[in-house]
Design a protein that fits this description.
- The strands form 2 sheets. Strands 1-2-3-4-9-8 form a 6-stranded mixed sheet. It has a 3-stranded antiparallel sheet with strand order 5-6-7, with helices on one face.
- The mean pLDDT is about 90.
- The protein has helices spanning about 25-30, 55-60, 80-105, 165, 170-195; strands at about 1-5, 10, 40-50, 65-75, 115, 120, 130, 130-140, 145-150.
- By secondary structure, the protein is α+β, with helices and mostly antiparallel strands.
Length: about 200
C-alpha cells in the first residue's frame, strides 16, 4: 500500500469477484485496512445483476453488467460532493484512456481508444466495442467509485472488447493508473493551497 499526501493506493493481489455490493462505505477499510480516502485495484470476474445496479437509467431497462474478467478500481472519498465525485470519475477515466493509448502505441499501433463521458470504446459507430464500465454514487459518509476495465469481456450484454485482445498488460496498466490518479489528487490539493486570494 502506498500513502500519498491525499490518498492511499493499493494493488490487491488476490482475485475478487465483483457483484455490486462491494460498492459500499468502508469496504476498503474493513477488507484491506485502507483508512480515509483510498483507491484500490484488483482483478476478478464481474456479474452485477439489475437489482444491484446503482444507475437508475440502467435499472429501468433491466440492464446488467457482466464480464469473465476485469480489472476493478474501487475508490472511497470523504468530504466530497457527488458532483466532485463525478468530475473525478471523468478525470480518472481520461487517465485510464491515456495510459491504454500509450501502451497501444507500442503493442498495437493503429488501434484508437476514445472516451465518451465515463465510458471507453474501441472503434466508431456500429463497430464500437465497449471496454469499460464506471459509476459514482454517494453513501451517507462518502463518495464511492467503481471502474471496471474488461480483460476478457465474455458474457457482456453489449459488444465489448478486453485488454487481452488489445495486448495491453493489466498489471502494467494498474500500476500506472493508480500512480497517476494519486498524483493528480495531490496536484489538485497543492493547486488549492498555492493560490493568492483575490477580493
Amino acid at each position: 500500500m502506498t500513502m500519498t499526501g491525499t490518498i492511499q493506493i493499493k494493488k490487491i493481489e488476490k482475485e475478487i469477484p465483483y457483484t455490486g455490493p462491494e460498492l459500499r462505505p468502508h469496504y476498503l477499510l474493513t477488507q484491506f485496512q485502507m483508512k480515509g480516502d483510498a483507491l484500490a485495484a484488483f482483478e476478478g470476474p464481474c456479474r452485477v445483476e439489475t437489482g444491484h445496479l446503482v444507475d437508475w437509467e440502467d435499472r429501468m431497462v433491466e440492464d446488467r453488467i457482466e464480464a469473465k474478467r476485469m480489472v476493478h478500481f474501487l475508490g472511497e472519498f470523504f468530504g466530497w460532493t457527488l458532483a466532485q465525485g463525478v468530475l473525478f470519475q471523468r478525470l480518472f477515466m481520461a487517465i485510464v484512456r491515456d495510459e491504454i493509448a500509450a501502451i497501444l502505441a507500442r503493442t498495437n499501433p493503429g488501434v484508437a481508444i476514445r472516451r465518451d463521458g465515463d465510458d471507453l470504446f474501441i472503434g466508431e459507430g456500429n463497430d464500437a466495442r465497449k471496454l469499460s464500465v464506471s459509476i459514482v454514487t454517494a453513501s451517507p459518509v462518502s463518495i464511492l467509485l467503481h471502474a471496471g476495465i474488461n480483460i476478457d469481456p465474455a458474457g457482456a450484454p453489449v459488444p465489448a472488447i478486453g485488454l487481452s485482445e488489445l495486448k495491453v498488460p493489466a498489471d502494467q496498466l494498474v500500476e500506472r493508473v493508480l500512480s497517476r490518479a494519486a498524483s493528480e489528487l495531490d496536484s489538485v490539493k497543492w493547486a488549492c493551497a498555492k493560490v493568492r486570494p483575490v477580493v
